[in-house]
Design goal:
This protein is mainly alpha-helical and 159 residues long.
């Protein structure tokens, strides 16, 4: 069994390092190019990363943005919003990236005068009990917002 696994790993390594395969992957969308350089060739290419939002699949994906992503909800169910995205980045331990600035500005702007964040919407679907009411202060959204802002060291910038 160990011999078989060793052969599989050698074959996989040979496939991963085959120059033709790498060239084929690099003759693709900029998002694929960036990941090939980062993950397979272990080369930092910030120029490619910066192009992702401006061309190809990344630009197409970003053009599909919907203002519903700016609405703070909880639970988010199958939907994605800026707070869910920022909370995800926070949970991975990723550092602040300037591409997050617009989302962070929107999040900070949604803070209410009582220092809480609202529940702006509730999504359709069966619920077992009401936790919070739309339009009111939300403990869940406030907790998630503060967790995000603390992680990115932005708590003081809110004062």
């Amino acid at each position: 069994m160990i011999g078989w696994l060793k052969l599989k790993l050698i074959a996989l390594f040979n496939i991963m390092t085959d120059k033709r395969l790498i060239e084929w992957l690099l003759d693709a969308d900029v998002s694929i190019q960036h990941q090939v350089y980062r993950d397979l060739l272990k080369a930092d290419r910030p120029d490619l990363r910066e192009r992702i939002s401006k061309e190809g699949w990344g630009a197409r994906f970003l053009s599909l943005q919907d203002n519903k992503m700016l609405i703070l909800s909880y639970p988010s169910r199958w939907r994605y919003d800026i707070l869910r995205a920022l909370d995800y980045f926070q949970s991975t331990g990723i550092g602040l990236d300037n591409r997050m600035n617009d989302a962070l500005d929107v999040l900070i702007s949604k803070r209410r005068s009582d220092m809480t964040w609202p529940l702006q919407a509730r999504h359709n679907g069966q619920i077992h009990f009401d936790m919070e009411q739309p339009g009111k202060a939300s403990r869940w959204n406030t907790l998630r917002a503060l967790r995000v802002l603390k992680h990115f060291a932005l708590i003081d910038s809110m004062k």
